[in-house]
Amino acid sequence: MGGNLHARALDLSHTAGDYSAAIEAGSFGDAQRIVKDSLAAGASGPEILDHVITPAMYRIGERWERGEISVADEHLATAISNRVMGTVYESLATEIPVSKERVVIAAVEGDQHVMGLRMLADVLEGAGYETLYLGETPLADLLPFISTHDPRVIALGATGPWSTARLIDTVRAIRCEMPFLPIVLGGAQAQRLADIADDYQIHVASDVTTAVELVESLIRATDLA
Ligand code: B12
Fold it and tell me: How far is the CA of 61 from the centre of ligand 1 (A)?
């Protein structure tokens, strides 16, 4: 078992390398084929999202920061990954539904990094949840939206360092109006809030695989309360 897991991790790191090369070369066809092959070889959709597409996108960011690729190259790689996620979604949607509960998913105002949130929406949707995925949303609009749609969980994303204060404001605003609504946070800035998680009763997830388990356990805990 341990050996299999090790082999799988090794395979996925090779796959991530190949996938990086494909999106850096701007080839949707190659990127799509690599992901299809990996799914056919037994990788799960969430594994592809967390361990293939995500690290490849981080590499795009590093290369852009070093001036090795242009903004246009980054946009192309992002667009390819968004298209490939459609293929991953098809594999997720075949899994047996575990819940029909509603989850609202949004990026905080001023943060356009939404790919991780879309991954979360896809994986939850594939597991049978009803997801309302908004992308980046002004706080003034998010609060009434949550009140109207009454989700079981709200998931918020924040990536850029400029978003930390906004993330805290958003959490405070939600807590003020909805003291018991479970809040799940993700993205690079969310990790920085882990030490104040207890104060605001928030839950921080590092990737979509753990986020789905977290959402499930939060809903179960609310049902028991
Ligand atoms: C693509 C990209 C963009 C795109 C985003 C398009 C889109 N539709 O998302 C665009 C072009 C808009 C963009 C703009 C900018 N970007 Co940008 N961008 C990136 C890049 C290359 C990839 C982002 C991405 O999609 N990653 C893949 C996703 C899947 O990873 P992830 O978000 O971490 O998600 C995973 C987990 O964190 C988790 N997760 C994520 N969110 C959530 C939420 C919940 C609730 C849960 C449970 C889990 C979860 O699940 C995912 C799977 O494991 C990153 C590099 C990087 N390191 O990420 C830079 C990066 C984030 N950008 C950066 C910068 C500087 C900018 C700009 C300021 C550039 C500029 N000068 O204009 C602007 C800011 C725009 C704004 N106001 O937000 C910097 C941030 C610097 C820093 N110190 O952190 C980075 C790190 C690049 C770099 N290396 O310098 N960017």
Answer: 8
DSSP codes of every residue in the chain? -HHHHHHHHHHHHHHHHHHHHHHHTT-HHHHHHHHHHHHHTT--HHHHIIIIIHHHHHHHHHHHHTTSS-HHHHHHHHHHHHHHHHHHHHHHTTSPP----EEEEEEPTT----HHHHHHHHHHHHTT-EEEEEEE--HHHHHHHHHHH--SEEEEE--SGGGHHHHHHHHHHHHHH-TT--EEEESTTGGGGGGGHHHHTEEE-SSHHHHHHHHHHHHHHHHH-
What domains, with CATH codes, occur in the chain?
A: 2-92 (1.10.1240.10), 102-224 (3.40.50.280)
pLDDT at 207: 96
Tens digits of per-residue pLDDT, 163-183? 999 999 999 999 999 999 999
24 C-alpha to center of ligand 1: Å?
Answer: 16
